[in-house]
Specification:
The structure is a single chain. The chain contains 12 helices and no strands. With 204 residues, it is mainly α. The structure holds iron/sulfur cluster (SF4) (2 copies).
Length: 204
Amino acid sequence: MPEWLGQRRITYESDLDPGFAREIAALPGGDKLVGCIQCGTCSGTCPVSPYMDYTPRRLVAMTRAGYKYEVLRSFTIWLCSSCYACTVECPKQIKITDFMYALKRRAIAEKVYPKRFPVAIMAREFFKMVEKHGRNREGGLAVRLFLRTNPLKLFYHGGFALRLWLRGRVGLVPDAIKRTGELKTILHALNHDDAPAAGRRGAA
Ligand code: SF4
Ligand code: SF4
């Protein structure tokens, strides 16, 4: 049983945030969430739902009900592997995978993602790296990930990284595209243009 299942807290009706459901519904494709019939096909299809703290079906229901605290802090959104199985099978054509991405971006924007949980850290660091250089650098990303999650892994994987470097598979010098300023302008526009209050930064 996943260890995070023991972290539930009691939620009272006064804790709910009805505005949260409206914000998520305002995102592209989010309006279809209201049409969810709670059939559970998404949860039954999802290959990683046994490891989630809330199944995809339940996450949709909780979002509509305004369980903002639980939804944004859930491990479910970070365990989603973006396989799109749920999206393909949903009888109401709800884009659940995109919904997961929206929740990830929102969690990063509000800084409420699970601390030291590798997937969330990697998503944030990946975005920051691409924003700065226009490209991902696997070596740099791995170092940042380990420093922010488990620094001891730097020693554990050091030998492997050295072998990759000796074979020219990873570099030490940052590789960047030209005109990174223009990329930043585009990303800034995507983050702040006509986006709802929900954050758009972060998860790719
Ligand atoms: S498959 Fe679609 S309609 Fe069924 S519970 Fe999941 S999101 Fe709702
Ligand atoms: S896209 Fe995510 S939520 Fe949907 S089936 Fe795949 S892993 Fe599960």
